[in-house]
Design goal:
This protein is mainly α. It contains five helices and no strands. Helix 1 packs antiparallel against helix 2 and helix 1 runs parallel beside helix 5. The protein is elongated and about 70 Å long.
């Protein structure tokens, strides 16, 4: 297989931007529970911010994961590793790219934020609905 140009991750500043887009989208969706009590306009604004943010964030995540999968499949890396076959420079470059992109990924922090803000929104909603029911 002919060697291709060097495989690189997205620029650090772009990855950071996408990270913050994901965080803002998460907050925007979860704050809708609170905004429902105040303003339909702000609910719509939060919904649009969250939706656009998630489209951008998850499109980026899909692109990253698809690229990793395609490279691993094209180079038959799972087969080579499983059967202890030798790896050439291109194979090692792909493995290095995958390892570096996993190490530098901020996705796990987005997952933590999604979990935390979802939990806060759930607790808030239960509290508000329970107190409304009891009063």
């Amino acid at each position: 297989m002919p060697e291709k140009k060097k495989i690189k991750t997205s620029h650090k500043s772009y990855r950071l931007l996408v990270f913050w887009v994901g965080i803002i989208a998460t907050i925007a969706y979860r704050i809708i529970v609170v905004l429902n009590f105040y303003s339909a306009l702000w609910v719509e604004i939060a919904w649009y911010i969250g939706t656009i943010g998630f489209i951008w964030y998850f499109a980026h995540r899909y692109q990253v994961e698809s690229r990793r999968t395609k490279l691993i499949t094209e180079r038959k890396l799972i087969y080579k590793l499983y059967h202890n076959k030798p790896l050439n420079k291109g194979d090692r470059d792909v493995l290095l790219y995958v390892a570096k992109s996993l190490r530098s990924s901020k996705a796990q922090w987005n997952y933590i934020a999604i979990f935390a803000f979802s939990l806060l929104a759930l607790v808030y909603a239960i509290y508000v609905h329970t107190t409304k029911f009891l009063l």
